[in-house]
Amino acid sequence: MASFPPIIDEKKEVDQVENTLSLSRSEQDEQDWTLEEERAVVRKADLRVFPMLCVVFGLSLLDRTNISSAYIAGLAEDLHLAIGSRYNIALLIFFVPYALFEIPSNLIIRRLGARYWLSFLITAWGACVLGMGFVHSWQILTVLRALLGLFEAGLFPGAVYIIGSWYRQYETAKRVSVFYMASLLASGFGPIFAYALSLIRVGDGEFRRGWRWIFIIEGIVTVVAGLLAPFFLIEFPEKVKFLTERQKHIATTRVSKEKAGAQTEHPTFRQSMRMLADWKIGMYCIQYFVAASSVYSLAFFFPIVLRQGMGFSYALSQILSSPPYIFTIIASLATAWLSDKIKLRWPILIFHSMTAIVGLLIILYAKPPGMRYFGMFLATFGTQANVPASLAYGQNQTARVQKRGVVAAAMISVGAAGGITGSTIFQSKDAPLYLPGMWATISMQILYSIVTFCMSTYFKRQNRLADEGKKPALEGVEGFRYAP
């Protein structure tokens, strides 16, 4: 595998690192390693944590959304998906097991290890995608979509959990964004790739239908990635072999305000349920629900909107689906870097949300197709950027590493409910404008901005009270401060 470029420019990191470490003077005195040693650990982590995680997460995004490309390539005709709500059912069934299996998977991953558990999940869902290339009824397609959701469920929360176990509070936003946006390249080029695959013709029978080859080729690629994954996936800091014992100590201790070694303990199911009783997790889940529902609705229906709503040809609809994602990757990485730089989350999150609203309004009410297409750039950026940003926000307000895995799994589980919403609010009967789905998405983005502003105001007040000595240890951990 080609070497992966460093996530952070080392020269800039030297300047930023003392701020990024978020250490008080007394904590720096207690630390038993140097700044140079810590930077070396972070640099090694950057080179090893992300490459394969980005590859397999990119494949997961591709495999769950390629049904929209197959739909306009002949799947809808052959399986009669335009009848009633068949297409919506095939979309939303994915999210039922996806939601239910998030938290159990994050309880399993720490015990079994990330490499083997995630490799099993990748290979299994690849087999499901491969099987979709051979279906002859929409019912079998729906069953395979459900199994796809079951096996994909563990990857995203597991990856966020792994990243959260390696990085400090103000190191996470740009890194979670790099992980998500690098993976989003697959979504960006997915429609073009799908169009190329749909041109494959074999024999005189059913395999002359191009939509089958979208599933078959992409399924084979995922299975191969799953078989290779054990050699390239990263483990939790205490389990890796590329660090010395001292570096492992630094890696496992630097991310937590708790006593050394406490973060490697495995929470029980009962402890995890107690962690979920924290009301703040409910607020993070609302944020992620909105982000996920908006992302899925646009991913599933934008190719259809381009085809039916704007009148572009099949080939042009596939090609035009990609540029908004490329713009999104660049703009999202820039705002994630800015968020870590200024050490503020809420202005960036609300900016993303407002941008999405403006983009959706342009799509709805602008007349020229070119202007409506520009709205797709804004809407895609605004919705997609808040997925990693919301996850980083939830991780940043969580002091204990054990709880971060529960927080990530809870948010992404509720995000699956957002996927169900995104699968159903755009319905065939509302074509070509899809007015109810558009306004539902706009309303949820307004809710996102309100929740984010209120939560960050609360966090700033709690930090001030703790600084004044009027509040006991935040999150039960001395010296911890929220990242509003």
From TrEMBL:
Molecular function as annotated in GO: transmembrane transporter activity
Membrane topology: Multi-pass membrane protein
Keywords: Membrane, Transmembrane, Transmembrane helix, Transport
Domain Major facilitator superfamily (MFS) profile: 49-464
GO cellular component, one term: membrane
Record carries keyword Membrane: yes
Major localization class: membrane
InterPro entries in the cross-refs: MFS, MFS_dom, MFS_trans_sf
Stretches that traverse the bilayer: 87-109, 116-135, 147-167, 179-200, 212-234, 281-302, 322-339, 346-366, 372-393, 405-426, 438-459
Keyword set includes tRNA processing: no
Protein's recorded name: MFS general substrate transporter
Organism: Lentithecium fluviatile CBS 122367
